[in-house]
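Here is one chain, start to finish.
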Amino acid sequence: MKNKVYCVIPARSGSKRIPKKNIKKFAGVPMIVRAIRMALDTCVFSEVFVSTDDIYIAEIAKNAGASVPFLRPKELSDDYTSSLSVIKHFAANHKIIKNEDSICCLYATTPFIKSNDLKNAISTFNNKNRNKMIFAAKQYPHPIQRAFFIDNVGEAKMFDPNNKFTRTQDLRDSYFDAGQFYIASVNDWKNADLSLERGIPIVMPKWRCIDIDNSDDWIFSEILYEVLRKKGNIDNP
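Its structure:
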């Protein structure tokens, strides 16, 4: 039987910076519902799951078409729990998921990602023989080689003084983890060191990989959503 790819959306109840963030309505749709609908729309996942510690979130997720086979324990739902720990727990406790299958960890707080982004990521994953982690990345808007910090007397200090007079166009482009999704085999989720260095980045447009983490992100995202909606650049899940 062909190896399966599952989607797991982590959605704990105790978000601090934006209370109840995962079920807060964004453009009229709860964040978790928006993510579930987008994942289902890809038609590449054998099943879409939600990992949550909250009964209310679980009910919302089920009504949107996701499966919630069990609740996540409280010790894996605090501010310090990593996504890796959540996916490990889910894979270890779900009876039908096998080591040769794969899991896409998709965040609920990514309202601009499109179903085709996930389709392309899964295609890349398969082309790499499913032995590399695939993740979303975006480019820094300014070369990090020209970055500075502010010292204890308030003065600017270059992180790399050797590049203080280098033209920006002569510096190598740099990228960072966009915090949208991660795709890896179940065996790697359970056993490997899933650092970015062994992964394959999918470079995405800046506007499509916004991770809403605080109130400023939320306000900016709502404004951007309205602009894009008026231009017809937004899907309405």
